Amino acid sequence: MKFYKDALSVSGFRVEVESGPSYPVSHFGEYVLDRNHVVPFHSHATWELVLQAGGSSTWTEGSLTCQLEQGDLLICPPGVPHGKAHRGPSEFRIYFAGLQMDPERWPALRPLLSQKHMVRIGQAGEIAKNFRILEDELLSKRPQQQEGVELAWKQLWLGVYRLACSPKRTWDQADRWLTQRVESLVEEQPGERWTLQTMARLMGYSPNHFASLFKQQTGQTFHQYLLDARIETAKAALRLGEQTLTEIALQSGFGSSQHFSAAFCRKTGTSPSRWKSRQISAKK
After folding, report:
1. Burial state string for 130-149 with b = 16 or more CB within 10 A and e = fewer than 16
2. Model confidence over 155-166: pLDDT tens digits?
3. How far apart are CA 179 and CA 165, in angstroms?
4. Contact 165/217 with Cβ under 8 angstroms?
5. Which of 117, 149, 166, 186 is the most exposed place for a label (fewest CB within 10 A)?
6. Domains of the chain (ranges plus CATH)?
7. Can you tell me the mean pLDDT for 1-23?
C-alpha cells in the first residue's frame, strides 16, 4: 500500500491511497483553508465525507446548495460533482475522507446510501474522533496497518449510522434522505397498502424510531402523510374522469370505495363525486 502527500499552499494534508478496489479508503485529509479558498467541482468513485471541524462553508451540487456550520457532516455519493465556490465569513477547517461502502454489505445504511445527492447531517461533531482514529491508522507504520484501517473505516461508518438514526439530530432540505426515499416509494407504488411497520422495515428502523424521525423531518405523522398522498393520487385520477370510484380507490391505496369516500370527505369537506363534478364544471 502506498501513500502520496500533496504539497499545498494551505495548511493541512491530503493522503491518496494507491490500492486495489477492495481497499475501503481512497483518500483522506485535513485542511485549514482561507475564507476565499475555492474547492473546484470534483467527484470520486467512493463516498466522500466532509466534516466541518471549524468555521463554516457553503458547498454546491448543481442547483443544490448546502451550508455547513461547525460540527456538520456532508456526505457526497460516488460520481456526484460537488465543490465549494462561495466565500466564507472566516478561515475554516475540514476533515474529509473517501470511503467505499456497499449497501448490501451493511443493509442498515441502505436508506442513506440510496441517495443520489449530497446529504447534510447536522450536529455531527462527535464523529471527529472517528476521523482522527482513521487518520492515525493511515499515517502510522504499525504492524497490521491494513487491518487497523479497515476497523477504523467500519467505526467511521458506524458513527455515521448512529448520527443518521439519532432522534436528536437536525435536518434540512439537503439531508431529507429518509422522507425523500419514502415519498419516492409511495409515488412509484401508489396502490400499495403501505403500513408504518412495512415502511419502517424497508428503511431499516424500528416502527417507533421511524415514526419519530419521519415526524421530525415532515411535521406530520406517517399516517397523515400517507393519507394526503393517497388523496392527491385520487384527485389526479378524478380529474381525468376515466375510472370508477372503486378503481380509483384501489389504485390510490384505499381498501374500498367506502373507505376512500369517507377519507376524501373528511379531508376535503365534500364527496369524490361532487369534487369531480366541480372540476369538470370549472373546465367549461
Report:
1. bbebbbebbeeeeeeeeebb
2. 999 998 888 776
3. 13
4. no
5. 166
6. 2-171 (2.60.120.280), 176-284 (1.10.10.60)
7. 63
